[in-house]
UniProtKB/TrEMBL annotation, chains A, B:
Pfam families, per database record: Aminotran_1_2 (PF00155), GntR (PF00392)
Protein name, entry field: PLP-dependent aminotransferase family protein
GO molecular function: transaminase activity
Matches recorded under CDD domains: AAT_like, WHTH_GntR
Organism: Variovorax ginsengisoli
Amino acid sequence: MEPSPLYRQLAVHYLDAIRAGSLKPGDKLPSLRSLTRLHSISLSTALQLCRTMEGEGWVEARDRSGYFVRRPRRLAIAAMEEPAAHVAPDPAQYVGIHAKVSEFVARRRQGEVRIDFSLARGAPELYPAQALQTIMMRLLRQRPALLTTAAPSRSLTPLREAAARRGMRAGMTLAPDEVLSTNGCIEALNLALRAVAQPGDTVAVESPTFYGLLQVLESLGMRAVEIPTSPQTGLSVEALEMALEAYDNIKAVVVVPHLQNPLGSVMPDAHKQRLVALCEQHGVALIEDDTYSELLDSDTPARAIKSWDRTGNVIHCASLHKILAPGMRLGWISAGRWHARVEMLKYTQTRSNEELSQWTAGEYMATGAFDRHLRRLRERLREQRERTTDAIAAHFPPGTRLNLPPGGLQLWVELPDRLSSMTVFDRALREGILVAPGALFSNSSRFDHYLRINCGWPFTDAIESGLRRLGEIACESGAVRMAA
Amino acid sequence: MEPSPLYRQLAVHYLDAIRAGSLKPGDKLPSLRSLTRLHSISLSTALQLCRTMEGEGWVEARDRSGYFVRRPRRLAIAAMEEPAAHVAPDPAQYVGIHAKVSEFVARRRQGEVRIDFSLARGAPELYPAQALQTIMMRLLRQRPALLTTAAPSRSLTPLREAAARRGMRAGMTLAPDEVLSTNGCIEALNLALRAVAQPGDTVAVESPTFYGLLQVLESLGMRAVEIPTSPQTGLSVEALEMALEAYDNIKAVVVVPHLQNPLGSVMPDAHKQRLVALCEQHGVALIEDDTYSELLDSDTPARAIKSWDRTGNVIHCASLHKILAPGMRLGWISAGRWHARVEMLKYTQTRSNEELSQWTAGEYMATGAFDRHLRRLRERLREQRERTTDAIAAHFPPGTRLNLPPGGLQLWVELPDRLSSMTVFDRALREGILVAPGALFSNSSRFDHYLRINCGWPFTDAIESGLRRLGEIACESGAVRMAA
């Protein structure tokens, strides 16, 4: 990577000071003259520094008095409204998401994508490639027969041990042999659903939820009932209770308690606890998708739902895809009282995972480097989320809403005036900008005026200008509609 | 590995001559005195050589005249009878194999296994660990971000290209983008069955067949109808035709045309062709499991069933598990007219396979080393099969039958007098010898007096004595039963 120009390096320096609170809204930046002396830079560089920070909305120029720190734009953006939890849920239905996703994919393939905001994924450079490579090469040298020896069934790989250890931090008591390695969290969810429900059965899901889950349900021939979900506190336990009373064929609930996809919501512990009790009382399996917990901006680990499980009714699923190695398909599942059935289903579906990648990831996770990596990753994602939110606040039409989530790599954006995200999607794609339209996150049309925006990539000028253009397109689409 | 003693090296030399036909049954070995001169060995080494070959049944001592080449014992073993093809098939039923396999696994865990004949797998040392390791380490150095970059969807990995190229040799015309990588052949079979049939539907399978397939059917809630299958020519197309006429809910046929597991049968081309036509005519999907073709003792590749497919009705599944890398979970599927559906199911089940292993295997397969490896592998497996058969002929009770298959790594052995293989299994396990009892290979009890014996491991003295002990146990079990 080329080093960034001097004025940009200095901008980052001042930004850090603003973020850390040592420069507060209303504080004055050093004068141009002071800047030249302080940093031994030319007057034009000092001017470029101030104008850049002004352009990005961090400071404002006041006539003849200099540059002052602004309130970050993101603080001006309105939060979303809470969903109505006390209405009867839509009837459970067979999921029809494949058609929507296929259309999305087909349209996407027509355009050439320059900037992709549609993912829910981190940039490769956010992950410790070098360290993983070093471990893998050492393993290949030390155990040359690893690639030519079939994985022993039930072998307690370092990944299973690491998953059990991480589980302890989240309040779960798991032995490594209660954890099964899977091909990513998506296989874990497949196995969990196949273990507890049959085709034709109904599964309660958050609304909105990630289309990957809706696709799994559709492919397994299961019905989904969508439960109102708060952008702040996640699944509405009251609404779920109403649904469980209204339908007697709900076999499972799938929930993402921390940094829900796409909302970014986090369930309070009291909600998780009530959810565990409610599911148990109704004899409904509770499937916890814990993909994002490690991305929470917090030094104390969040408590997993399964930590309150006393009867084996909670199935815990997780993965390394977002937190360590997007190029390795590694996830795991702790299936409680369905352990034997899930083990059998895993064997019949894909056999045991390869050993090499499990050893590589597991050995890395056993070192202090893993937590150091996670801290850096959270820090970088926080910056990316904040800068993305600032850009959205600056460029999107008035009335745009979003809740800045306390972690993770995506934003859920509500467009004003029920503006169609498909219109924005189509127009943006013509200019090479890809977004995930809200329609993909529900069977209903309730989220058609939402977008999910990925913040997993370093915030570059290209990203900034992509967001600006996206905002302009949204403004234009709104104006066109108003005129029509 | 330690070099084998001199007499053993010389025994291998003479064995090669016998196998190659330069020493024929009835031919005399050089005298002990000639042997000492020919090979500059001591008289005691020459004697050890001859006694070893005698002990293994290759030569016999005739009084005062020396050692003469014997007819290999395996030639004395009787072939199996052909199954009756013209009887109505058993009614289709839900597979109840999990219970059988669970019992097998539970019993196996009680004993300590010294010698494992129950696998269908090659020893790690039969595969090119070093070459695969070298390629993988080079890839890791050249593309350090491989582990931290999510696999692009639809990326045309070298594995997909190699699979398409190998397909050409087997008479199929496939573009790399018609081949999808899977987690082994077992995932390919799952996807194929999920694409063409629903829970409750009936699937026709060979009888006997490998329990892995019966487990997949059971876990998917499908019914199996077992079609009589010849130990020589594989699936009986006539019997299948009767079944298709008797049942109207058969949605698919799964067939292993080459080196069927467990039979080792090979379908003649004319049968394959009739099978393709029959399935098309009845609107039944034909799923070809081509795991073993590359292990056929032949320099001309066998023609895949899919090579006669003109309408996309044949789904071809294969894997590297038996032929290249038992430690890598790599298979592939070409799903004909179900391609889009299988692609969707693969995405919802486990996402795309990791890139690293696909690149490693695919790059190896693109070199001449792959065919050289396969030739060596076939040669070694042939020796192991022959020596295993010789040992069975020498030690198993009279009336034992088997067909020596033209390739592969296992033997299917019929015990005389309908001797229960579970009795043999139990007694052998007490002595640390594990076999796969025939009961696991069918829903019926038709194969309860069969055993499947793995020949994938180098034939050592331990294997020889394990087979001898197994034969004694079978003889004792038979005698006990007779006496009872």
